[in-house]
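Milestone 3.1: sequence recovery, worked example.
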């Protein structure tokens, strides 16, 4: 009976050490992924959900019978804090100051939210994201009248062929040579109602309420992009610390595994 209890304790210690390594491994993966997107415009870093870790730790200490059946604490969440604005000078680069998201739409009509305002002009006048989604305005997918984008001789200026004369006002109004051609749709939403797609784009969950924001609630900066909100120093420090913890957990498992193996070998002669 005493031998069985000793083995159960060792197995329990192995399980606790292994379970403790799961969130560390997930944190390592998230930190590495965040660092890989350090220069990705509009990227929002992903973090591990702390309350899940606390819940599992409490189970391990106070309710041993529940720990084995609990899901590993690997839930994550998105840090939606804004990134720094980076000037590009590209008239098709847009950044938001304040709350809200740009709305983009794919070929199937599904809409996504993003803070990455990097667009290109298509042959039919749409403003398109790098992955082919089209920017949405208050009246639907935006279409720029291409004939208005032809450069015109301006007093005191040399003529420049195909000069894009698109102006985006801080209120999100699109103008070409003073002619209003569209209005950006900037929406707000409860962040818990968003599903992370790739750290740059987010899909509203079923039932999510998208609220169009008024021009007083945000400012559009033309010729700027919002950078990633990843802090490289913080992520690197965390990455080093997590690697140390992971290695420590691995040593604990190897030590307990060796002890258990010796106990099993000795029990054969008893």
């Amino acid at each position: 009976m005493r031998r069985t209890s000793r083995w159960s304790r060792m197995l329990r210690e192995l399980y606790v050490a292994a379970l403790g390594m799961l969130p560390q491994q997930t944190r390592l993966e998230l930190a590495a992924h965040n660092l890989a997107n350090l220069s990705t415009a509009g990227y929002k870093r992903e973090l591990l959900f702390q309350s899940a870790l606390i819940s599992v730790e409490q189970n391990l200490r106070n309710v041993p019978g529940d720990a084995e059946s609990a899901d590993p604490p690997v839930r994550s969440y998105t840090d939606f804090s804004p990134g720094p604005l980076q000037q590009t000078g590209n008239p098709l680069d847009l950044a938001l100051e304040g709350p809200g998201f740009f709305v983009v739409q794919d070929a199937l009509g599904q809409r996504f939210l993003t803070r990455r305002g990097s667009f290109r002009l298509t042959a039919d006048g749409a403003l398109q994201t790098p992955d082919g989604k089209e920017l949405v305005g208050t009246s639907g997918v935006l279409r720029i009248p291409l004939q208005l984008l032809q450069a015109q001789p301006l007093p005191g200026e040399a003529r420049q062929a195909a000069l894009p004369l698109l102006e985006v006002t801080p209120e999100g109004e699109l103008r070409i040579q003073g002619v209003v051609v569209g209005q950006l749709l900037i929406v707000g939403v409860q962040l818990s109602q968003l599903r992370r797609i790739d750290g740059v784009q987010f899909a509203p969950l079923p039932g999510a309420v998208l609220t169009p924001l008024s021009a007083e609630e945000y400012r559009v900066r033309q010729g700027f992009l919002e950078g990633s909100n990843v802090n490289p120093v913080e992520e690197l420090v965390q990455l080093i610390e997590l690697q140390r913890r992971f290695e420590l957990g691995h040593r604990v498992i190897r030590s307990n595994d060796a002890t258990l193996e010796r106990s099993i070998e000795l029990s054969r002669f008893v």
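Residues 232-267 form the longest helix (36 residues). The chain is about 35% helix and 25% strand.
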